[in-house]
Amino acid sequence: MSMPSPVSLSLTALPIASVSPLQGSQTTHWQQQSVSHGQLYFHVDLVHAASKKAVLTAIGQSMHFPSHYGANFDALADCLSELDIGNASGIVLVLENLPALADFDLAAKEILLEILQDAAHEWAQKKIAFRVFYS
């Protein structure tokens, strides 16, 4: 029995709290899925991010964090938990091209993914979907 391709998956087939690798060119698929399911969609392409601060700044800008956002891991965690989603039924965040940099190494990437997973679980407790896809 073959599994459906990730691109054929619907958001409803995924856990409401998930942080998953982005496979292939799924960006458009997840954008369409978020729109059709009444969820907010945020896309961050980090191909030009040259530092940890640039990665965190790009996430904050794309997600419309307040001007006082400090572009550090603590501020990211705070702002993710305080997002105003209006009437949306969930959040889809696509992070493309996570860099490998001196100050954004594997440990920093793991911290980022852990913060995102924590935020996903926090939103799930409120019965709000929070799904992240990254490459």
UniProtKB/TrEMBL annotation:
Cited SUPFAM superfamilies: Barstar-related
CDD domains found in the cross-reference section: Barstar_evA4336-like
InterPro entries xref list: Barstar, Barstar-like_sf
Domain Barstar (barnase inhibitor): 42-134
A Pfam family reported for this protein in Swiss-Prot or TrEMBL: Barstar
Family in the record: Belongs to the barstar family.
Protein name: Barstar family protein
Origin species: Undibacterium rugosum
